[in-house]
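Sequence, structure tokens reproduced for reference:
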Amino acid sequence: MSSLQNHILIAMPHMVDPYFGKSVVYICEHTKDGAMGLVINRPFMEPDLKKLFAEIYEDNENILKIVPAVHFGGPIMIERGIVLHSTDHTVEGSVKIADKIAMTSHRDILSDISKKKGPTRFKLFLGHSGWGGGQLEKEIERGDWLLQNTTSDFIFDVPEKYMWSQAARTLGVETNDSAGLSGHA
């Protein structure tokens, strides 16, 4: 299988995993050794973001005013912040994923954003999703995920609450409540 980087995974309706049910995962890296992605349609449900940001970013008051939402990227390294952003501004350590999309875990990007010198489009994630070598491919073969090309417009502009149903419908998956009933043909 060729690289799945810069694609989205769309959880099939039968997936009831608490982290990945009805999720859309953006694949940031994919090699023979494994894959890394970010769940792009889940807000982070931490009651005290100020406390959490204090560990990540010194000027947490300012960043909470600038970043409209914090997203749950996945259950791995939940204490680590990752900024998915447009490539019009990068810092040392930024990793280009596609022509218009990069990711950065260095806190300088947050400082630049707070000074309005950062990228024009961005989302902040805590944690990420990961798969060992061959694991993601097996999950796709098993029918847990649908794979789709994506764009920066989808990632940055579609409201999170509509991402899963919009992406699933483009592939012909029925998203009403009865779609949660699974069976094999």
In short: The first helix runs from residue 49 to 56.
